[in-house]
Amino acid sequence: MKKISILGLGYVGLCTAVSFASKRFKIIGVDVNSEKVKMINEGKAPIYESGLDELLKRSVDSQMLHCAEDCGYAVRNSGISFITVGTPYRPDVSIDLKYVKSVAKSVGNALKNKEEYHMVVVKSTVLPGTTEKIVIPIIEKHSGKRCGLAFDVCYNPEFLREGSAIKDILNPDRIIIGEFSRQSGDRLESLYRDFYENKLPPVIRTNPSTAELIKYVNNCFLAMKISFMNTIANICQEIPEADVTTVAKAIGLDRRISPLFLNPGLGYGGSCLPKDIRALVSFSQKLGYKPSLLKAVEEVNILQPYKVVRLANRLLGKIRGKRIAVLGLAFKPNTDDLRDAVSIEVVKGLLKENAEVVVYDPAAIKNAEKLFKDKVRYASTALECVSDADCCIIVTEWPEFKALKCEDFIRRMRTPVVIDGRRIYDPEEFSRKLIFAAIGLGVL
Ligand code: NAD
User: Fold this and answer.
1) In what order do the strands lie in the sheet with 435-438?
2) Nearest-CA neighbor of 207 among 146, 148, 134, 128?
């Protein structure tokens, strides 16, 4: 079996690497971050992701995964390379392709002296046209070879969700192949046939631009569901006794709607949804079309984190000088990722009102320390976080917060005021036993 090289070992690259290695594919991982490479070769995961530690250790111990900093070595010693580098946005919200361009250049240089045919698969999220107009020309320029002859390129978006990344890679809903030529699509589909054996999900084959667009449209649709439900939550909040969770449950039973992604909360965050929606808005505007619906989705999301700050103000009178416990910082449970997490806006909002902020997260404290520095206090457990607090705000729905009882708050807090930003508590019980408010829960 041909070796696979994976270029960029972040959430997508590393999880892809260990998933392939777990099915006995030989993997060479590459990253420019030497510390990351060293850690991975020692079997230690640089990120928190469910099931990753164990699978990584197994992959390294069984010698199915080995990492290096040298992209050339990896390309020369593999038959197929996946590009999984980051595509963050610049301050002007355009997508930053510097990592994609740099890795494409390295692949091109490596292919210059490689005699065998090579396959390149772009997995990073890039705007329509990028693979054909940017990646392929860079590889052709630096290799001196033609795409479709000495090498081929496909675009193959990744849909994993952080927190369940490995599970998602092993059981995807579908595989999208944006093929430069029929031959390249056949080769990639055949790799996935070997990988999934008799569990191959539906495969959609199309041109690279359509495949690139599919990734954005997918994320924009999910973001739209979230902003839609948060809009309804904000309306419910103004109607005495209305509860958005019951509304969501009821409409979710309509098969045309589906119950997924209807949870009201503080908005979407993370490294993908905010970035991808902004990129598609800006891309569309450059094409001359103003995507009003997508802009509204974004606007709702920008304002949503401040709802809990306003609720805290309403319940406490003024929050200046009050101690506010923030439970949850990661953009979602089961990850340590703080990129564009709504917790950042919540903490900023509280600090702006001169509150004393104490934070706790089961996985993201190390990342939070780099971000908030000494502006907040860090607790090492949820119970320590709420101790002596005047108010507690639930920002991320970690399972351990769901397990907290009313009594845990009542016994430890200075004043038992709980604001449920993720709708994890029973409003009837909490409202009876302590001072309680929640997103999308109308007050009397
Ligand atoms: P990340 O920032 O966590 O990781 C990217 C890695 O690439 C880093 O380790 C970086 O050091 C490395 N890198 C940068 N330049 C390199 C180079 N020239 N050679 C080798 N390595 C290099 O990114 P991520 O979250 O894994 O996302 C990767 C891509 O996948 C992005 O385009 C993202 O939008 C997309 N995506 C992400 C997710 C997600 O949940 N994180 C899901 C689907 C798609």
Assistant:
1) 377-378, 356-360, 323-327, 391-394, 417-420, 435-438
2) 128
Name the CATH superfamily for 3-206: NAD(P)-binding Rossmann-like Domain (3.40.50.720)
Q: Which position has the token pair 């309306």?
A: 235
Secondary structure element (H or E) that encloses residue 169, with its range: helix 165-170
Q: How far apart are CA 359 and CA 361, in angstroms?
A: 7
Same fold, 3-206 and 220-438: yes
Q: Answer for the pair 425, 392: CB distance below 8 angstroms, yes or no.
A: no
For the CA of 161, the nearest atom of ligand 1: 40
Q: Look at residue 117 and tell me whether its pLDDT is greater than 70.
A: yes
**Which ligand 1 atom lies nearest to the CA of residue 12?**
26
Q: What percent of the chain has pLDDT over 90?
A: 97
Over the stretch 77-109, which tens digit does the pLDDT of each residue have?
Answer: 999 999 999 999 887 778 899 999 999 999 999
Question: How confident is the model over 227-239, as pLDDT tens digits?
Answer: 999 999 999 999 9
pLDDT at 444: 63
CATH number for the domain running over 220-438: 3.40.50.720
Q: Rounded to whole angstroms, how far apart are CA atoms 346 and 331?
A: 12
Which residues form the pocket of ligand 1, taking CB atoms under 6 Å from any ligand atom?
7-13, 30-33, 36, 71, 84-87, 99, 102-103, 124-125, 158, 160, 162, 271-272
pLDDT digits (tens, 9 = 90+) for 365-390: 999 999 999 999 999 999 999 999 99
The answer to whether 430 touches 392, Cβ cutoff 8 Å, is no
Domain ranges of the chain: 3-206, 220-438
Tell me the C-alpha distance between 357 and 375, whole Å. 8
DSSP for residue 135: I
